[in-house]
Structures are given as structure tokens and as C-alpha cells.
Design brief:
The chain is of the alpha+beta class and about 190 residues long. Helix content is about 30%, strand content about 35%. The protein is globular. Bound molecules: coenzyme A. Coenzyme A (COA) binds next to strand 5, helix 5 and helix 6.
């Protein structure tokens, strides 16, 4: 549906559940994602079912699957949540579940492509996020694609035995449009 240089973003399907369940309880990935409680297949299935039918404006949520553009391999998910129709802002999230597929450029490309969707398809004006201060890879990606650091939530999350700071970042439509003006595409099909 939406192509970056390396990825294709498409609707998430219940068929993605098997791959999700293979990786979703990986501690190395989950320690940066809020909760370390394990996800059961039932709860993950319910999440996928909700995500695959959500209306961004009614449900405030929009989730896409990330695929390797070359091979079609399902790599992870990227989402907007707490979408405000009134203020046209949303919080951004991303996860490449298989750690072997991290650090190969897919996350940066998927983030850029999802920003394009946010600003060019959903018409958002501000996209924001918060990321664990120890998640150097994610922070590098966000900075690289144009998010700006706007502050720190101190000791916001309890994970791996300690309270951890979270870095708040955001990007405005006007900033993104400098790189991707109306009519531009994030990548070739
Ligand atoms: C965060 C995530 C989306 C990044 O995607 P990715 O495909 O792994 O990242 P990329 O390959 O696109 O880019 C990684 C960048 O971080 C850099 N990097 C990697 N490890 C790093 C580290 N420990 N310190 C600093 N920079 C680091 C890489 O060099 C690269 O930057 P460069 O292109 O300037 O060289 C992905 O790793 C992921 O899903 N992680 C697990 C879940 C998660 O943390 N989600 C985000 C929650 S806020």
C-alpha cells in the first residue's frame, strides 16, 4: 500500500498472528515497550482483530504492518494512537519484532513512511512520541527522520528493576513537508 525505500506498509491481518506470537514476548524488544508482562495468544489475537478494523477517527488508533519490500516478510508493526480529530495530533509507535531484522535500516524507513501517511493521508499536524532514554537505537532513528527532542519525562517507566526516564519528541507537518511536499511519495513501489 505505502512504499518506502525498503519497506511496504499494509493493513495488519489476523494471519500475522503466528509471526507476532513468535517474537512478541522477546524480553530484549519488550523492555523498551512499556510492559514486561507476557502477552497470551488470546490477548494478542484480540489486539490484532481490533487493530485490523479500527477507524482512526472513531477509535483513535491506526496500525499498519511493516513488510520487507523485497521479500514480503512481515517484520513488525507501526501505529498511531490517541489520535485527535480535533487537534490533528497522534502518538507514534513502532516495533520490529524479530531482533535479527533490527539495525538494517527498516525501522528508519518504516518511520519515515508512517510519518508520510500521518501527514499526507490522515492530515495530522503534530506527531509525537516518548522513548526510553536507554533506547539509543530508537532515539537515533527518530532524530534521523526529523523528530525533535522536546523534553524528558523523569523516571516515567518502571522496567528491568529501575525507574527510567523517557525522552519526549515531536515533529510538525510543516517540518516534514520541507522534505516531502504535497504530491511526493516516500518511496517507489
Ligand atoms: C527502534 C527500531 C524501530 C529501530 O529500527 P531499526 O531498523 O533497528 O533501526 P535502523 O537500522 O533503521 O537505524 C538504526 C540507527 O541507530 C544506530 N544505532 C544502533 N544501535 C545504536 C546504539 N546502541 N547507540 C546509538 N546508535 C545506535 C544505527 O547506527 C543507525 O543509525 P545510522 O543509520 O545513523 O547508522 C527497532 O530497532 C525496534 O523495533 N526495536 C525494538 C522495539 C523498540 O525499541 N521500539 C521503539 C520504542 S520507542
Amino acid at each position: 500500500m505505502y512504499y518506502g525505500d525498503l519497506v511496504r506498509l499494509r493493513a495488519i491481518e489476523v494471519d500475522d498472528l503466528d509471526v507476532l506470537m513468535k517474537y512478541v514476548n522477546n524480553l530484549e524488544t519488550r523492555r523498551f515497550l512499556g510492559s514486561l508482562l507476557p502477552n497470551s495468544r488470546k490477548s494478542e489475537r484480540e489486539w490484532v482483530e481490533r487493530a485490523s478494523t479500527a477507524d482512526p477517527w472513531k477509535d483513535g488508533q491506526f496500525v499498519l504492518a511493516i513488510e520487507d519490500k523485497k521479500t514480503g516478510e512481515f517484520l513488525g508493526t507501526t501505529s498511531f494512537f490517541d489520535i485527535s480529530k480535533l487537534h490533528r495530533h497522534a502518538e507514534f509507535g513502532i516495533s520490529l519484532w524479530n531482533t535479527e531484522r533490527q539495525d538494517k535500516g527498516f525501522g528508519s524507513d518504516a518511520t519515515t513512511t508512517m510519518l508520510w501517511v500521518g501527514f499526507h493521508v490522515l492530515g495530522l499536524n503534530n506527531i509525537y512520541l516518548n522513548a526510553n532514554a536507554d533506547n539509543a537505537r530508537a532515539l537515533r532513528v527518530y532524530e534521523k527522520v526529523g523528530f525533535k527532542k522536546i523534553g524528558v519525562f523523569r523516571e516515567m517507566m518502571f522496567s528491568m528493576g529501575k525507574f527510567q526516564d523517557h525522552i519526549a519528541m515531536d515533529i510538525l507537518r510543516s517540518e516534514f513537508l520541507e522534505r516531502f511536499p504535497p504530491g511526493s511519495l516516500p518511496g517507489e513501489p
